[in-house]
Amino acid sequence: MSRGRNIATILQPLNKCATQTYLGTGLHTLGLLNWILQQTGRADVYVSTFSTSEAFLNGFYNLRKKHLVGHSVLLADLKASRKTLHLYRQMQCCFDSVYLGMNHSKIVLVQNDKHLVSVISSQNQTYGDRAECTMVTTDQMAFYNLYSGLRDIVDNNSIQLNGLFNRITERDNCLREDTNDPVAGVLPFGY
Questions:
Q1: For a FRET experiment, which of 71, 73, 82, 125 has its CA 20 to 30 Å from that of 107?
Q2: Is the alpha carbon torsion for 116, 122, 123, 124 positive or negative?
Q3: pTM
Q4: pLDDT tens digits for 157-190?
């Protein structure tokens, strides 16, 4: 699944080391998430990123098909939305909820009844050959602090992408019907 290095050569199992760090190349978020879920089992996953990619979304979808992901939330940056909107249907197939906000953080939170795992990274959900910094921790306070911050952004400083285009289409259709527009319900190409 991972295009990078074997994670076992970089990090120790979660139950052996509560906090681990890595600075270098070859540790990609998707491979790291897969490695974490192999240890925790099925879990809820919360992802915060500036930008995502088709490769990450395809891999995340495969983790869902393997029933490793329970509930999932994605927060991406509003400024990166041109790329994000291109991928919005794919994001909605992968994540239960997708939000856009003023966000540059890159975290992954993994939670089930036995595990709380936090990943803080400099890496977006993309692949590249640049060195990235990553910290993985099972510290409860770290998880709760990051989760609280993510929740605040989602609840107070973001818009939910799920169904946004359907809601805009419905609103536009209602406006057209109110004006007796002869092309009511017809959408322009590329919409």
A1: 82
A2: positive
A3: 0.81
A4: 988 876 554 544 455 555 555 555 544 443 443 3
R_g over Cα of the chain: 19
Angle between helical axes of 54-65 and 29-40 (0-180°, round to 10)? 10
- Structural contact between residues 68 and 94, judged by C-beta atoms closer than 8 angstroms: no
Asked if 146 and 107 count as a contact pair (C-beta separation under 8 A), the reply is yes
Count Cβ atoms within 10 A of the Cβ of residue 166 and give its class: 0-12 exposed, 13-18 middle, 19 or more buried: exposed
Whole-number Å distance between alpha carbons of 156 and 159: 9
Quick: pLDDT tens for 18-74. Answer: 999 999 998 989 999 999 999 999 999 999 998 888 889 999 999 999 999 999 999
Eight-state DSSP code of residue 52: B
